[in-house]
TrEMBL record, chain B:
Protein name: PadR family transcriptional regulator
Keyword set includes Ubl conjugation: no
Pfam families cross-referenced by the UniProt entry: PadR (PF03551)
Membrane-traversing stretches: 12-30
InterPro entries registered for this protein in UniProt: Tscrpt_reg_PadR_N, WH-like_DNA-bd_sf, WH_DNA-bd_sf
Sequence ranges assigned to domain Transcription regulator PadR N-terminal in this UniProt record: 20-89
UniProt keyword Phosphoprotein present: no
Key words of the record: Membrane, Transmembrane, Transmembrane helix
Amino acid sequence: MDSKKPPRWADKLLQFVCAPELFEESQGDLYERFLRNATLFGIPYARRQFVRDVLGFVRHRPGRKAAVVVKNTINHHPSASLFQPAMIRNYFKTAWRNLLKNRFYSLINMTGLTVGLAVGMLILLWVQDELSFDRFHSKADQIYRLENRVGTGSSQQIWTTTVAPIAEMGKKELPEIKDAVRVTDGNLYALFKYKEKTFAEDHSAFVDPSLFTLFDFKLIKGNPAKPFPDDQSIVLTETTARRYFGTDEPIGKVITADGKTSFTVSGIIHDFPKNSSFKGDLFLPISLWFKTIYTNRKDGRNKDNDFHEFSYVTFLLLQPGVNTTALADKLRTIHLRNKPDDTDLTYLLQALPEMHLYRADGTDGGIESVRMFVIIALLILVIACINYVNLSTARSMLRSKEVSMRKIVGAAKGQLFMQFIVETALLFVLSAALAIGLMSLLMPVYNQISGKELVIDFSNYRLWLVIGVTIAGTLLASSIYPALLLSSFEPLKALKGKVSARLTDATFRKLLVITQFTFTVILISGTLIIGNQLEYIRSKELGYDKSHTFSFYMRDMNSHYEVAKAELLKQPGVTDVTRSSANIVSINQQTGSSDWDGKAVGETMMVRPMAIDKDFISFFKMKLPLGNNFTGSVADSSHFILNETAIKAARIKNPIGKRFKLWDQEGTIIGVVKDFHLASLKQKIEPAVFYYKPENESRIYVKTTGKEAAGAIAATERLWKQYNPDFPFNYTFLDQTFDDLYKTEQRTGTLFNVFATIAIVISCLGLFGLVAYTAQVRTREIGVRKVLGASVPGIIQLLARDFVKLVLIAIVLAVPVAWYAMDQWLQGFAYRITIHWWMFALAGLLALAIALLTVSFQSIKAALMNPVTSLRSE
Amino acid sequence: MRRSYLGEFEEVVLLTVAVLGTGAYGVAITDELDRQTGRAVSISAVHAALHRLEEKGMLKSHLGEATAERGGRRKRLFSVTILGSRTLHDIRAVRDQLWDSISPQGLPAVSL
């Protein structure tokens, strides 16, 4: 049916090119002709002819003069089209000449644009990378991570790992769940050996075989239907396989783990993409894990009934459109049926693509930085655009004569508009090319400070998307207004020297300068406050002394601890040695399994437990306001030391000698330790319990004198080799571990500094250009003033006053915005600085000083000029 | 009074409009041109010429009835104005005058 009609697109094209009042008859004529051709020569010919006829109309453009201007039928003479090749050549020629003629301003514009575009694009690339996390799976929007919310009241927690049986049961009982995969990184094996090569593997995991089907981690070698043919199979990533076997065929090779168990390589997967939250090197069947931990269990637990061990990261593949809250409730019902006393436990589902940017409870995590940086990128781009708009509109006054002449000679408004658009576009294309070059240059530095591994891969369409959108957006934002303004001059008035009111009244330009400096002040105060907060974190009294201390996990050294300790203390540079079960900088373990007299029914207090040696408290110079320390006696195994927060949370009065139970260990409280920061300062201090159990204390701390630290480390390594000949010696200084806690914040701080600096530089560049222009326009005025006796400072003041006023307004506008934004950021820290007015005052002063510096350079130059030269120039 | 100038194609179109009388619109003019002169011209070219002539005041137009074969679109019917008529007559007078001034031997003989 449709093919009996003329082609629709041609019809549409006709409507587009034809003036509205002529459209009906033209279309009618073409239809009539189409029908005749169709009967005479057949439909294909008629359709072709129709298109040909329409194209004829495109050429003649009946009733239309220009692409944008529709004139009425009377009073039009056929005039040159906007897009004739000759005109286009001319646009480029004049644009190029203009750029060359005003080298100084072109340079300022281009520098600002290049830097702005390069930095803006770099940030947006980072943002794009962040947003792309975990989205590459074909079923990404149906995959969820199963989580538990546990505890009551203030000690409520979210665990991202859950119990083993829930995945199987859920899959069996609930039709919403299509598939599930469990992952646990149990440390059964550490050393893997193939022939002469031995590696200590940190990234091995026990997984369900569905890992390779549910996610897009497809086997590239091996049997996809059965990734693990038996419990002694192992799947490796490409890189891992290459590490062991070089270029040899990996499938079927046998790797020995810890010298006792052999695994046959049964599959190879691609390396994990950089934007995958899930990573690993070696994968073993989870059935082996279950077999190992549940064989010969006295408590009768097995993989199908153990609702105690929350150590499995579980991903569910759901049917499309499933209500996750309802599903979570159903899972909870299953859990409670099997373990009725977990009344404080609920289930949660987090969508896979949200794992990277949101916290486990769904609140904002990394997405905050993403938002912050999107805003900064936009600010920088806007500042760069404003520069261009300001300079070109300001300078348009100088060009009013050119424009008027063109108009008088017969240029249509549309043509002038095009001319200025082309001029801007040319400058942008040059800047964009430079910006891409600059980006490639800056990439390594940028990766270093942002902690990413971004590459500029020109074959990647995403890169072009970012580049294209950025450039098109900025070009659009900065070309239209100046072009409209310039093409709107009224020739006679302009030639007489009266420029349209829109120009002399520079309100718009002033507004833009204010905007620029508002952004600048916001960025400066942000930098100041972030810097202050980071400094505060670093210097805050932690409640323990972590200086010059390094620490490591002892492995087999733990069973010879006393000997090793005595040996270490003999070394020069070592002042003290102690041990505990966790790293004091960040105690990760947590349990709700505690009891005390006065505990309410259904109450859980989450505590951070840590086994410590008897000299631990003195080693870290911690304070015991109440009670005593462990003495190392046998009785200590039923003694506990709680921190003040724990005492407060448990509401225990006169704690010394009171009953306390941790896990299955009944005992008494023998001391109260003063609160110390056992995790990042973003978190409040939580309840903590010290207990005494030397066999658990496998982390050793060695305090050095600082100066002789290197010698102490070397000595320790020699000792390490005695007990752990196969393992590499990995130690970290507590200061380093502590700094690592704030890596993201440090990074944000550094990036913020860099971006703020760039924003300031670009703003100043624009200001510099504007002042230079003002001085140029007022050369003669300044000359006359000087002849009449004006002083140099007077003239500088004259030129600078206006700009200073603008900056002051900007400061007033910026302070509330910056205050609010930084307050929001600080909310992320449990321990934070208070925002003081002087921070904003300082930021304002800085902005003012920078602006003054920029302005005064040109002003002084203008003021010092000899009036004879400036007045003779007419 | 301005001297009006007609291009050759415009002149032919103007004449065709006169030939067709009351039924002069785009397609009809194109067809008539084809038949009378053997020139296959595109509709768009005819349209352009018609509008130019109208602007010059040699044609006037009104919208006619719609027919089914035109998909319900009305046709624009053209007729020659006084100015158009006079211009045509002027041109013809000039031509006639020139023809009359040619001496019998002035043109090589052409056998028709």
